[in-house]
Write a structure and sequence with these properties.
This protein is mostly helical. The protein has a domain of 129 residues. Helices cover 82% and strands 0% of the residues. It has 6 helices and no strands. Helix 4 runs antiparallel to helix 5 and helix 5 runs antiparallel to helix 6. Keywords: Membrane, Transmembrane, Transmembrane helix. It comes from Salibacter halophilus. This is Tetratricopeptide repeat protein.
């Protein structure tokens, strides 16, 4: 039959472990009673154990109370100082993040406005080149929404209305109104 070697090895291992446990040395001798230990320690200290007087007890109590009060005060001071530090750090971090996010959104908004303006002008110019003034008018109006008093967009818008008026005889009054309003602003 197989398996005899492994069973034999297991039995030897358990015996060895049992022998190791018996040789274990601990700091506390479990075989001695409380009386024997008390006698052993009093011999080593060479001071007989005597009861405390009332005055000594009160003195020890007062020292303990004072020590506990001191520790409690220290805990309260540490707690408040930690809370203050955490609050200040949190406030500074929040304000820094809010400032950065605000500046980032402002920069992104400005970049998006510039991008929209440039795209509108380019699309409007390409529409004018293809002789499609109605589409160009929409693009130049979009550019004017981003930058209301931009001369390039206004000039190209007038040119688009003029071209629309010449090609289809539409929106001639609108072109005249825009030209009149610009003339009034310049005067």
């Amino acid at each position: 039959m197989g398996g005899e070697g492994s069973i034999h090895t297991m039995i030897n291992t358990l015996k060895n472990n049992r022998q190791l446990l018996n040789r274990r040395k601990g700091f506390f001798d479990q075989k001695r009673s409380q009386k024997e230990l008390k006698g052993l320690y009093s011999k080593k200290l060479k001071t007989p154990e005597k009861p405390l007087s009332d005055k000594e007890r009160k003195e020890i109590r007062s020292r303990l109370r004072n020590e506990i009060k001191r520790q409690n005060r220290l805990r309260v001071v540490l707690l408040f100082s930690v809370l203050i530090v955490v609050t200040v750090i949190g406030y500074l971090a929040f304000s820094l993040l809010a400032f950065q996010s605000e500046s980032n959104t402002t920069v992104k908004h400005h970049k998006s406005e510039v991008k929209i303006y440039d795209e509108s002008i380019n699309k409007g110019l390409s529409s004018l080149n293809r002789k499609k003034p109605f589409i160009a008018i929409g693009h130049f109006n979009n550019a004017l929404e981003v930058r209301p008093n931009d001369e390039l967009a206004i000039d190209k818008l007038i040119l688009s209305y003029q071209m629309l008026c010449e090609q289809h005889e539409k929106s001639c009054q609108k072109a005249a109104i825009i030209i009149d309003s610009l003339n009034k602003e310049k005067m």
